[in-house]
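One-letter codes give the sequence; the fold follows as tokens. Both lines appear below.
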Amino acid sequence: MSSDASPEAARLGAVRHQLAVLARQPSARVTEFSKTRPTQWRPYEITNPSSGLPFTDGGAWELIADRLDAGHPLVEMDLKKPAGKKGYVMLIDICDGKAPVYVKLQLGCGRVIARSFHRSIKAGRDENGSNE
């Protein structure tokens, strides 16, 4: 990282690296839904253009990690559930002529928590129109 990078950019770069490392470790991935941490993890509803088959869980995580490593835009946001926690959003165009894939992740105690993986309805928002 260059010396002229802002502290915020450096911090987000460190978060990006941590997310990518954890996304590549199956034992560090969390996709379970809970009332306190709602999750819309639906990779199987999206066709992977490289295979023509639906994304698998592993394929979704691979896409996420690859895009993080490649420097894909990552936006930090405040989560509503759980309140006070940060989420990290990417809108990934998989070049299939459809809406981008909305990905939202959360960091937690040596784990990467998948909050969303589905088609985006509105840029920067999930399919319910919220930025939760």
Helices lie at 7-23, 57-69. Residues 61 and 105 are 11 Å apart (CA to CA). Residues 124-132 have pLDDT under 50 and may be disordered. The first helix runs from residue 7 to 23.
